[in-house]
Amino acid sequence: MTAHTPPTEPFRDPQLPFANRVDDLLGRLTLDEKISFLHQFAPAVERLGIAAFRTGQEALHGVAWMGPATVFPQAVGLGATWNTDLVRRIGEAVSKETRAMRARDDRVGLNVWSPTVNLLRHPLWGRNEEGYSEDPKLTSAIATAYTHGLRGEHPTYWRTAPVLKHWLAHNNETDRATSSSSVRPRVLHEYDLRAFRETVEAGAVAGVMPAYNLVNGRPNHVSPYLDEHLRAWTDEDLLVCSDAGAPSNLVDSEHYFDTHEEATAAALRAGVDSFTDHGTDGSQIVARVRGAHDQKLLTEADIDLAVRRQLSVRFRLGEFDPLHDPHAGTGEFDTPAHRALAQEAAEQAIVLLKNDGLLPLAPDTRIAVVGLLADECKLDWYSGTLIHRSTPLEGLYERFGADRVEFAEGVDRVLLKTADGTFLKVPEARDATDEARGAEGALDPALLAGRTDLPPLTTDAAGTELALVDWGEGILTLRAPDGRYLSVADDGYVRASADQPGGWIVQETFRLEPYENGDGNGHGNGHLLRHVGTGRHVCVAPDGVKVAEENPQVFEVIVTESGESAVTQVTAQADVVVVVAGNDPHINGRETEDRTTLRLPAHQERLLRAARAANPNTVLALVSAYPYAVDTRQLPAALWTAHGGQAAGTALARVLAGDVSPAGRLPQTWYADDLDLPDLLDYDVIGTRQTYLYFEGTPLFPFGHGLSYASFTYRDLSARVDGDAVHVSFTVTNTGDTAADEVAQLYVRAVDPSVVRPRRELVGHRRVPLAPGAKEELSFALPLTVFGFWDVAQGRWRVEPGPYELLAGASSEDVRLRTTVLLDGEPGAPRSVLGHGLAAADFDEQSGTEIVDRTKVSGDAVTPVAGGSGELVYRACDFGSDATRVTVEVSGGGTVEVSLDGGPALATLSPETATSGPYDYTTLSAAIAARGVHDVHLRLRGPLRLARVGFSG
Fold it and tell me: What is the pLDDT of residues 611-628, one digit of tens each?
């Protein structure tokens, strides 16, 4: 007898379309199995041979959290390259390393949670390092390149499945899980949605992650925009993965829903497909979905839709076609090509801010390199573990020779003297292993514990000299002579145990607090030492130094050597001083923590002044995740780079030496002062004139700025309108004597707009390598849509007729060529409000108000901030021949005052008693007399929500 081969299930048949195979598999799963798939860690279904699957693998600038991997520059540094081809190649390398790492560790996921496309609207945002730019066009261009690299070029199977973060209008860590971003329709469409939309429409995005915050009063995890906008942009099934813990936040911190079943059902119906909550334990999410289904808050069809989207991604990743998946055998990891790419990226990310001719440095230059980051290669929260490492000092040693380079870190070296006259002592650590936290990889590095295998600090008569660094805002680190930082483990003891500050809650930072004896009088140099991570003071106990609630130790800080003294000693005899300043990515500006100032920390300002005073040939090299307001007027040269990954030091040295001409460009405005910034939580970029698009002041350095060792001329700008596009071309020539890249930028400006439009807006750019004397003609085809704006009167995009200026140049302010085109466009018209009315959120201008949710499902309303007073203005409203009545839909209690053209009130409407809740609306009406076209002014007072205004005759 011949055994028959069992028939292949349709879901395993590679000849069938994915949609058919998903249908087949979905039909074979039980309801319980489908519900289990909704958690981040979907279990295996052994009866069908389906493996376990997890969503989420961090890969922002290299594979993160899973141990050693190639580390590329931070995302903001990749944005500074303005080089889409480079970023695409980085995405390819990262996805190949993801595949290679998964082959040996199945904890590594192929659904990568990258890139971050939140716009860098405000430079004090703690996660500035994760975004690409303040500009939506540049952000989408870089993000599109990265996602294409992550996806791979195969038409059917994806190497990895990228998920964009964090939807939507998310630029604050302060109260991030409870704050609401008030985003008016123009800002929503012209700014916040654009970076997501253009990246999704490019076709290499597998999904999106909603952000923790609320937008217009409604949590992003139940946002109608997921269906109304996101899923309308593509025919692909997009997988929406919640952020970690966000599903529980809907009840626990936001109090938006009363029960977790209600919240989970609302999120699922809004479009969330995978719930990241309670770590690897899916039982609570499963119970919530099951409870919601039993309570008829969800249907099985709702569950099927979410599971379908997950399965679609899994099929595209080749999970069910191992013999046909072209990426299954990918083994490229830490290859020479990847190392070279990391160096190329680090070089291209460097921005030359200023140069009075000091750079590049001659080969025989004697260099003093100083500063807190001079011998550091810092990692951030979303970095992998370094395999290779190059600090600025090491790079300069390698390029110029160790005999020509002197070094001073510039730390303050101190002894901490106790009240009984002894000093803090770091004991010798015998038999301790030399381990680096996180090197082994962890699905959740927040759970990595501090070391307890080392002895805690003690005290003795001599003590140990510690390196003290003040990182600003009163935050200090203390480092032992062996290079390990003082840290506090779970047992509360203080040890010199950390290779770097880090962790979800940093355990390596402290504050020195002047000691008060109870009557308000300070005691000289006496200080308490507070550990920031626990909030407890350091005390000396018989069994070692620890943190505790009681008996804090009073310390006298004895400075044995100041940082300025060390810097002065090495700088005076050098030809050139390089001061390397910046931030530690885990301190003062990171996820969960916004910055409070643009200023460089005082400790580093002191070092910079000392270096400049000792030697006027001082170069400032800023290595940071964000902009600073730093005075460079007395400096002959300054550069900036984000933390540049494993090759940062080599790259900086090569740029300083002139081996590479710098061509990075600033991806965001560098403001001159904190006073130039709006409130961090004010998302109205138009109304408060934020970013280069609207900022009317003088920046320290403008968007797109960056100098070169070469010089370039721009010639022959031409523009013509042809059908649905404007075709623009100009020529760039390298008139210098060195090969260099130029980043040519093209902006547009509406000359005579009817509403506030950007001062100028990036519509194209090109990074072009040019040899001395070489030139290249650059051409751009601009769809007419790029000249449009969101017309709130009509609820759609509109291109106004009239002149538009095209500006070509080297930055948003360094404009070399201009020309004007005349577009026919579509004329505007007054709003016909008679019978149509006004949606409250469709205002042209506002003051003192914020947008909130009309209902928990959809719609907007407007309310005065904090129950105070505010005003809404709607321009050019047509009342026809005779409007005799006004109606308002309101909830809560308060007053709506209606006037025309800012004149006296025509009507004042107020409910006799406040409605029962924010979603309980009532309609009020009053007689008016209006005709013709007028600006409508609505003054709101009190804790009242306005949804709509109607007019009738």
Answer: 999 999 999 999 999 999
HSE value, Cβ hemisphere, 13 Å, CA-based, for 623: 29
692: how many CB neighbours lie within 10 A of its CB?
24
pLDDT higher than 70, residue 520: no
Per the annotation, the verdict on 243 as an active-site residue is yes
pLDDT greater than 80 at residue 523: no
Strand, coil or helix: 485: strand
Asked if pLDDT for residue 436 goes beyond 90, the answer is no
Q: Which residue has the tokens 């609570």?
A: 284
* Dist. CA 520–CA 518, nearest whole Å: 6
SS (H, E, C) 865-895: HHHCEEEEEEEEEECCCCEEEEEEEEEECCE
Place of tokens 């203005």: 873
Cis peptide before 166 (omega within 30 of 0): yes
pTM for the full predicted model: 0.96
**Other C-beta atoms lying within 10 Å of the C-beta of residue 821:** 17
Query: What pLDDT does residue 522 have?
Result: 40
Instruction: Please say whether the beta carbons of 280 and 109 come within 8 A.
Output: no
**Alpha-carbon gap, residue 867 to 952, rounded angstroms:** 29
Interatomic CA distance for residues 300 and 277, integer angstroms: 22
Q: Measured between alpha carbons, how far is 506 from 488 in angstroms, rounded to an integer?
A: 9
What's the mean pLDDT when you consider all of the chain? 96
Of the residues 135, 192, 237, 243, which is catalytic? Answer: 243
Distance from C-alpha of 490 to C-alpha of 505, rounded to nearest angstrom:
12
**Position 443 pLDDT exceeds 80:** no
Residues making up the chain, counted from first to last? 953
| Residue 499 confidence (pLDDT) above 70 | yes
Please determine, for residue 343, whether its predicted confidence score (pLDDT) is greater than 90. Answer: yes
pLDDT tens string 33-79: 999 999 999 999 999 999 999 999 999 999 999 999 999 999 999 99
Contacts by 32-37 with C-beta closer than 8 Å and gap 24+? Answer: 32/290, 34/300, 34/303, 34/304, 34/307, 35/286, 35/289, 35/290, 35/293, 35/303, 36/282, 36/286, 37/307, 37/310
Q: Is 400 helix (H, G, I), strand (E, B) or coil?
A: helix
Instruction: Give residue 189's pLDDT.
Output: 98
d(CA 949, CA 254) in angstroms, rounded, equals: 29
**Within its chain, how far is the Cα of 299 from the centroid?**
36
As a 3-state breakdown, the chain gives helix, strand, coil percent values, each rounded to 5, of 25, 30, 45
Instruction: Count the neighbouring beta carbons within 10 Å of the beta carbon of residue 177.
Output: 19
Task: Write the DSSP assignment of 662-682 as a string of letters.
Answer: -----SS-B-S-GGG---TT-
Mean of the pLDDT values across residues 714-737? 98
Residue 778 token pair: 């650059």
Write the DSSP assignment of 416-428 as a string of letters.
Answer: EE-TTS-EEE---
Instruction: Determine how β-strand 405-408 pairs with β-strand 458-460.
Output: unpaired
Predicted pLDDT at 277 = 98
